[in-house]
Write a structure and sequence with these properties.
heterodimer; A: Metallo-beta-lactamase, Chain A; Rossmann fold; 4 domains; seven-stranded mixed β-sheet; 33% helix; B: 677 residues; alpha/beta; 35 strands; Integrator complex subunit 9 (chain B)
């Protein structure tokens, strides 16, 4: 029985370290290859030894697909390909391919330079890993090999984020990666066609949330920034360079323009400025509005937002009274954002807005959980007087969005990943009850097996198909029709042809099997007269059939031949020879029994029962399918002379 | 009538209902418009607009031109001047004084409202789209890549702007009368299809036409009505340019249009996917097969430098997208080394800014080198730097800022390459009188001599450097060898050497079997040998099949199944279980919605070894068996049962009494020795 097997190595009832193994029709695909923010030990990467203990991963995987550039989806990639060893293709979209190595390098620097980790992947490994990447276009059908094909759909989570369809023959799986079903300030909404996969693997970060309108959150955010600036405070927004940063910049930029504000907004240079360039160059991946207006105004060329460099920020920012500053990284665990935070934390007029999730142990997590006295290096204690705000701007689909996507794709089953077990449980029930689709939520290392029943594509010879269609000329063309043919299987080439053609192709002759039955009648008339009577008898009851009286005295009913003979010395007995081929067996044997019943031919036979109609229909079908020319041998002499004389008499 | 002009190339074939036909609506080989009837779909391939017709019209000057507004009217030899309002004499030629008109594809050969989809291969081949989608009852979908649509929109916008900017009251039509046209001097006399000539569309029509386009990506498989799949492939000619594969499961048509193997800015051509085509329709080859594009670029640069060094200006009539990107890139590398960095480059077009901006955002459609620049991230084209350093400036028109910034000597890129409308008309008038200036023709679509005709006599230098990167005949011949189509179909122009070089037998398509050629308003029957169709066998049915190995590696299974056909897809399902026969021969009446499902008798094959057969008979209780030899085989006599069985190589004949039990027993014994099909 064919089946689809799915095993999450990461993101099974968890967020982080996304890595899902899928086996479909004998092909093995790995979806994402992420790291876990919450761990610093072995657990930060998926356990690839699950795939194989010894031997190269290349032999066990047909391809790897990366859904987007976030590190929890691609952070383990260089480790996987260069340190564990994988040389097969890695598929991702163009923007992901462009941005991914930068984030990986950033990640490596923090791990090695800041945390001093040994045995981490190197810059060269990132480069070598990226050489194995094959970039894909949206909606392009990529043929991984002769059978396995993949196709990317827009996911709207970050620049270049994609959902992937993995397809072998008529079996398919869709993996959503992370996605967003409502367009935001810079990206469009996820979209997929009614591709009816066997399985949809979806993220479920917000499995239980129906989020309030984004507009409200945006208004809140702007209000807080504006109020702080109005009262002369400074605003720090720690962000990751790519993704939310651009959305918030666009938000502030348009607000500043509308309100005609003059307060400067700063953006830390380096990565972030570079990031804006990516957005400018990948405009086709942004939302409709930005794409339409980019010639007049590229939304990622900010008028109010200025860059400052790492070392000069003090000079420019200090000179301006109350600036708004975007700085990296987003969790305040190192770098520029932390540096600025330390300078501004002491003033209650100032504000820090955390626009995303913070991992435990980071300064961001501490202040969000209410800690106001922070121990810094050198035993310094930093007192946080500034206001601390949290605003979620994560671009994930909420419960409504997930249900909407499931509705769009119409899968046979759904499998949840990238979420918390409890929330998944809730969504699983909702999906099963409301959409009547079976739903799974395996933990890491747990395998879900789904039996599939793919139909088998074969080539049907046009002759055979047309013959069947021609029979469908019956007024009701939609009525299903019975088709008879021979399937020729040669290697993986399957062809359905008419039986005659199959015989011909194989160089075989048809073996004709014919029956001739003797029906004895009491009839004193001459053979010719007997035949004529038989003819008119049959003609009167077989109204739907072609009953003919041939010049040589024989009678035919369609292809069945009836001859009358006077075989013996008994003049009161006639023998009817009824002859038919194996293919016409039913009608033939029916006729004999009919003739047997009407032996006397004196009484008109009982009126045709409804079975006549059935038989008629059937007979037409048989005749057409057989379609051989009727080569009825002459029966009389040869057949009769071999019938032992006494046999004829005795009956 | 049109019917008479249609030559049906049915070449000895009877016209069948489902024949695949190609309707050829355009006579211009690089601006094709064909309609393919394939399976049950009607697909238009490209929508090219032949603009060479505009060469017969007077230029539309942006600034009042005393010369052009005071031309003498033309009169017949006998002095009859009834056409003098419509036709003017200029520089020794006669031109139509009217809103310029374009030559449309044939619209009467086939009912265009029956077209299901239109496939666009590149932005030059979609210029007739509004005429088709807005005025023929077309209700289908148009497919094109995103760069094709965006740049195509710019080309249309520019065209509409050029024409609408210079409103002209007069629309001449008298001269088009067949009897009058005969009397006109060449080339007007020889102008073809003048009755189909139409004025330009409006922006409203453009927007409406473009709204019918659905964006597609390279290698995207698009299903049409379940019967046909179409796929665009990179053609290497322009941003987003594509060739198309149109295929069913057993037939494949490749549509090759405007392809290039040169390494310029677009993504390279995908040749491999064109393999195994039954029919390859080949259009859009280079219009200047004798010119080498690399050499032309070199000549362009050196002539430009020469003119500017002598204090002259250079005018480059061009389209706002395409080769201009490559020229700017060459100049970017060239001007510093040639000491021309102080010479301003002006790009004047209503869509100049958009074109330059759009070129930078289509990373995914660019060649590898340019793509990797985007990954840095840097703009893929160096004209970004030319703009940043103020070496290249762009303006929507000569009016406004340009007149303030304008410095000479300079290089001006502007349209339209026909020299009949657009800002280029102004520069021709302005610079034509000085021999210091040079006009360099790079676009291959218009004969430069004809383009220049209304401006003669000219003092300015004219350089002809046509840059056409599309396939030449050597490349075509290599391509055809590589992809091996069964049949090639192409415009008739490609099956003979160009008229001006009739001895150059190398300037034509050479393939076996010879290419089938078409001309405007012809219908070709495409030579398909269709033998198979795809059908899906449902898993339950597949499970019930019993394969039998007939020869090594070949297995057979007889199939009796219910055929379902829906949305052009065929499906085989298991037959419903036969209804249990009720008493005797009476059966239930087969109701209408249940298919006739009785098991059909297969064909038989094999032969019956008499000895073994007799043994089997004995084993089954028959006695008193006698075997007689005959000429062709044997006769087995079952004396007791009064039965005889004639056995020959390919037939068996059972002759018995009307004893159904006996007959069935014998039948089953015979069948044991035979294979069923």
């Amino acid at each position: 029985m064919p089946e689809i097997r799915v095993t999450p190595l990461g993101a099974g009832q968890d967020v982080g370290r996304s890595c899902i193994l899928v086996s479909i029709a004998g092909k093995n695909v790995m979806l994402d290859c992420g790291m876990h923010m919450g761990f610093n030990d072995d657990r930060r990467f998926p356990d690839f030894s699950y795939i194989t203990q010894n031997g190269r991963l290349t032999d066990f995987l047909d391809c790897v697909i990366i859904s987007h550039f976030h590190l929890d989806h691609c952070g383990a990639l260089p480790y996987f390909s260069e340190m564990v060893g994988y040389d097969g293709p890695i598929y991702m979209t163009h923007p992901t391919q462009a941005i991914c190595p930068i984030l990986l390098e950033d990640y490596r620097k923090i791990a090695v330079d800041k945390k001093g980790e040994a045995n981490f992947f190197t810059s060269q490994m990132i480069k070598d890993c990226m050489k194995k990447v094959v970039a894909v276009h949206l909606h392009q059908t990529v043929q991984v090999d002769d059978e396995l094909e993949i196709k990317a759909y827009y996911a709207g989570h970050v620049l270049g984020a994609a959902m992937f369809q993995i397809k072998v023959g008529s079996e398919s799986v869709v993996y959503t990666g992370d996605y967003n079903m409502t367009p935001d300030r810079h990206l469009g909404a996820a979209w997929i066609d009614k591709c009816r996969p066997n399985l949809l693997i979806t993220e479920s970060t917000y499995a239980t949330t129906i989020r309030d309108s984004k507009r409200c959150r945006e208004r809140d955010f702007l209000k807080k920034v504006h109020e702080t600036v109005e009262r002369g405070g400074k605003v720090l927004i720690p962000v990751f360079a790519l993704g939310r940063a651009q959305e918030l910049c666009i938000l502030l930029e348009t607000f500043w323009e509308r309100m005609n504000l003059k307060v400067p907004i700063y953006f830390s240079t380096g990565l972030t400025e570079k990031a804006n360039h990516y957005y400018k160059l990948f405009i086709p991946w942004t939302n409709q509005k930005i794409r339409k207006t980019f010639v007049q105004r590229n939304m990622f060329e900010f008028k109010h937002i200025k860059a400052f460099d790492r070392w000069g920020w003090g000079a420019s920012a200090a000179l301006t009274p109350h600036p708004v500053v975007f700085a990296t990284p987003g969790m305040l665990h190192a770098g520029q954002s932390l540096q600025i935070f330390r300078k501004w934390a002491g003033n209650e007029k100032n504000m820090v807005i955390m626009p995303g999730y913070c991992v435990q142990g980071t300064v961001g997590h501490k202040i969000l959980s209410g800690q106001r006295k922070l121990e810094m290096e050198g035993r310094q204690v930093l007192e946080v007087k500034m206001q601390v705000e949290y605003m979620s701007f994560s671009a994930h689909a909420d419960a409504k969005g997930i249900m909407q996507l499931v509705g769009q794709a119409e899968p046979e089953s759904v499998l949840l990943v990238h979420g918390e077990a409890k929330k998944m449980e809730f969504l699983k029930q909702k999906i099963e009850q409301e959409l009547r689709v079976s739903c799974y939520m395996p933990a890491n290392g747990e395998t879900v097996t789904l039996p599939t029943s793919p139909s088998i594509p074969v080539g049907i010879s046009l002759g055979l198909l047309k013959r069947e269609m021609a029979q469908g000329l019956l007024p009701d063309a939609k009525k299903p029709r019975l088709l008879h043919g021979t399937l020729i299987m040669k290697d993986s080439n399957f062809r359905l042809v008419s039986s005659e053609q199959a015989l011909k192709e194989l160089g075989l002759a048809e073996h004709q099997l014919r029956f001739t039955c003797r029906v004895h009648l009491h009839d004193t008339r001459k053979e010719q007269e007997t035949a004529l009577r038989v003819y008119s008898h049959l003609k009167s009851i077989l109204k739907d059939h072609c009953v003919q009286h041939l010049p040589d005295g024989s009678v035919t009913v369609e292809s069945i031949l009836i001859q009358a003979a006077a075989p013996s010395e008994d003049p009161g007995t006639k023998v009817l020879l009824v002859s038919w081929t194996y293919q016409d067996e039913e009608l033939g044997s029916f006729l004999t029994s009919l003739l047997k019943k009407g032996r006397q031919l004196t009484q008109p036979p009982p009126l045709p029962s409804p079975s006549w109609t059935d038989l008629g229909l059937h007979f037409r079908t048989v005749g057409a399918v057989g379609e051989q020319t009727l080569q009825v041998p002459s029966l009389g002499t040869e057949a009769l002379c071999h019938v032992p004389a006494q046999a004829a008499v005795s009956s | 009538s049109l019917g008479n002009r249609v030559r049906l190339h049915l070449k000895g074939k009877k016209k069948k209902e489902r024949m695949d036909l190609l309707y050829c609506l355009s006579g211009h080989p690089t601006l094709p418009c064909n309609v393919l009837k394939f399976k049950s779909t009607t697909i238009m391939l490209d929508c090219g607009l032949d603009m060479t017709s505009t060469l017969n019209f007077l230029p539309l000057p942006l600034v009042q031109s005393p010369r052009l507004s005071n031309l003498p009217g033309w009169s017949l030899k006998d002095g009859n001047a009834f056409l003098d309002k419509e036709l003017k004499e200029c520089s020794g030629h006669v031109f139509v004084d009217s809103v310029p008109e374009f030559c449309l594809p044939e619209t009467e050969l086939i009912d265009l409202s029956t077209v299901d989809v239109i496939l666009i291969s590149n932005y030059h081949c979609m210029m007739a789209l509004p005429y088709i989608t807005e005025h023929t009852g077309f209700t289908g979908t148009v497919y094109a890549t995103e760069p094709t649509v965006q740049i195509g929109r710019l080309l249309m916008e520019e065209l509409v702007n050029f024409i609408e900017r210079v409103p002209k009251a007069q629309s001449a039509s008298l001269w088009k009368n067949k009897d009058i046209q005969r009397l006109l001097p060449s080339p007007l006399k020889d102008a073809v299809e003048v009755s189909t000539w139409r004025r330009c569309y409006t922006m409203q029509e453009v927007n409406s036409a473009l709204s019918k386009i659905q964006l597609v990506g390279y290698s995207q498989k698009i299903e049409l009505f379940g019967a046909v799949q179409v796929t665009p492939l990179s053609s290497g000619y322009a941003l987003g340019s594509s060739n198309w594969i149109i295929q069913s499961h057993y037939e494949k048509v490749s549509y090759v249009s405007g392809s290039s193997l040169l390494t310029t800015h677009p993504q390279p051509m995908d040749q491999a996917s064109l393999k195994n085509s039954d029919v390859l329709v080949l259009t859009g080859l280079t219009q200047i097969p004798t010119a080498n594009p690399d050499g032309m670029v070199g000549e362009f640069c050196s002539n430009l430098a020469l003119t500017v060094r002598n204090g002259g200006n250079v005018l480059v009539p061009c389209y706002p997208s395409g080769v201009i990107y490559d020229l700017l890139e060459c100049l970017y590398q060239y001007i510093d080394s040639a000491g021309l960095s102080s010479v301003p480059l002006y790009f004047i077009s209503p869509v100049a800014n958009s074109s330059l901006e759009f070129s930078q955002i289509f990373a995914e459609w660019l060649c590898h080198n340019k793509q990797s620049k985007v990954y840095l991230p840097e703009p893929p084209f160096p004209h970004a730097e030319l703009i940043q350093t103020n070496k290249l400036k762009h303006y929507p028109s000569i009016h406004g800022d340009f007149s303030n910034d304008f410095r000479q000597p300079c290089v001006v890129f502007t349209g339209h390459p026909s020299l009949r409308f657009g800002d280029v008309v102004h520069f021709m008038e302005l610079w034509g009188k000085s021999s210091l200036n040079t006009v360099i023709f790079t676009e291959p679509d218009f004969s430069y001599l004809e383009a220049l005709a209304p401006y003669q006599p000219l003092a300015m230098k004219c350089i002809y450097c046509p840059i056409d990167t599309r396939l030449n005949f050597i490349q075509v011949s290599k391509l055809l060898k590589e992809v091996q189509p069964l049949h090639v179909v192409c415009p008739e122009q490609y099956t003979q050497p160009p008229p001006a070089q009739s001895h150059r037998m190398d300037l034509m398509i050479d393939c076996q079997p010879p290419a089938m050629s078409y001309r405007r308003a012809e219908v070709l029957a495409l030579p398909f040998k269709r033998r198979y169709e795809k059908i899906e066998i449902m898993p339950e049915l597949a499970d019930s099949l019993v394969p039998m190995e007939i020869k090594p590696g070949i297995s057979l299974a007889t199939v009796s199944a219910v055929l379902h056909t829906k949305d052009n897809k065929h499906l085989l399902q298991p037959p419903p279980r036969p209804a249990q026969p009720t008493s005797g021969k009476k059966r239930k009446r087969v109701s209408d919605d249940v298919p006739d499902c009785k098991v059909l008798k297969p064909l038989l094959s094999g032969s019956i070894p008499v000895e073994q057969f007799v043994q089997t008979l004995e084993k089954h209780g028959f006695s008193d068996i006698k075997v007689e030899d005959t000429a062709k085989g044997h006769i087995v006599l079952l004396q007791e049962a009064e039965t005889l069985i004639q056995i020959e190589e390919d037939s068996t004949h059972i002759i018995c009494d009307n004893d159904e039990m006996l007959r069935v027993r014998l039948r089953d014994l015979v069948l044991k020795f035979l294979q069923k099909f």
